[in-house]
Model the fold of this input.
Amino acid sequence: MNILVVTPEAGNWKVPSPLATAVNCMTQAFANAGSQVITCSPFYKDHIIDPDKYHCVYQGVEALQNKPFEVWRSEDDPLHTYIYNEEYFGRPYVYGPPHALPYSDNHLRFAMFASAVLSYSAQSGIQFQAILGHEWGGALVGALCHTVYQEAFHNIPFFFNVHNITYDFHVQPSEIEKIGLPRKDFNMDGYEFWGKVSLLKAGILYANKVLFPSSGYRDAMLNTNLPGGLSGFLNRNSSKLLGIQFGVNYKFWDFNDEAKRPIKEAKRIAKASLGRQFDMDLSNKLIIYSHMDMESGNASETLATILSDIAKENVLIIVGISPEHPEWNYYQEVSHQYGNFIRILQFDSEEANNREKLRNTLAASDLLFAANLQEPSASIILKAMAAGTLPLTGRNVGIASMLTDYTLETAGEANAFLVDDANAPHQMLRRIKDAISVYNTEVADWDKCVVNAYSGFHYEWAKTISKYLLTLGELGL
Done:
């Protein structure tokens, strides 16, 4: 099967974004499954590793804005194809400078990008069976298949991947024709949003299927009161919304992949290493890790509410957080005052080793505090379990429906501690105390839970892509 992938972020980046990481993993998994996949993204020279190893293999003019473009490739990066236009992509940032307004012409940039991808693909001679667009930056390719490029692509199904529904780009209706949208669909049932054009809605509107990164996230979006009529729009299109769980790369996130020690021993060694880093004896402490980022929801508020209660227990809380996070100063102050109880793991946006930091900390941790998690794929839970760390989270969060809660009756199968409402501090506190009790007094049960999480539950990217291919097959492809 030949699949064309259109995404605003992908490829061999120095510091891959979450979107680029997910798309790269999908691309490799498609290739491993025997599909011919051409993943196209803009060529950001400031982000690519060794840009001098890439060369231009094609020059053309796309048909929407009549802009010249180049296609760049490298033998060292065979699965990725890059589109370059100096005016639009010869810039230092993908969408705009950090902590500032995005580029005002982003809609024109990514419309031209989608148009260039289709122009290049049309002349390539490859007969594509499906087109997969990612996020609002890849959304317009679906509409262009039915407007500017309808002769070549109108019969090819378009699948739109929504990684996070909060990411969108809005433009004035005067720009509709410039980005290749049919004006007749500028209404509440189409791509209109508060009087403007929503590129996210455009992607959903023209898609045959819309793919969310977990079934839990798909269900939450259909049952959440989203602004601007978006809830009604999603429910009207609910028949084409699918939730397919994103996987993780166990080759990386399983810290014990090479040594292959018994997981209890491997975690003991990891905990001892962390203890030396903190100059603490952690051998008898339950280590709780809480990851604070822009997708952690109200985790900070929930954790802060119960900190004084947890402090009475023999635990160490590690908060992974960046200086840009609004709660940075609060947790810094608490860690300075109560260093024997809470420590900070600092993440910096430009550090290439952030993933290694997170993996090593999860390896040493016993419990993941994932309160009110808003990460659509809930990948932090999978990453924790890949390290033999038990998640404490809500029953309605991402992948939680696939987990088994610890009770006396489920002790042999359990791999998590679940609550009905992960936004309720008292529920999270109660389950933390349950976890501490099991850790200290039901050692055999705890060890079995760790083994279940580590060895008994894997969700590889290959599994994600097998379900994608099954979805394509159900359409007769």
Observations:
- The domain at 2-247+461-474 is CATH 3.40.50.2000 (Rossmann fold).
- The two ends are 8 Å apart (CA to CA).
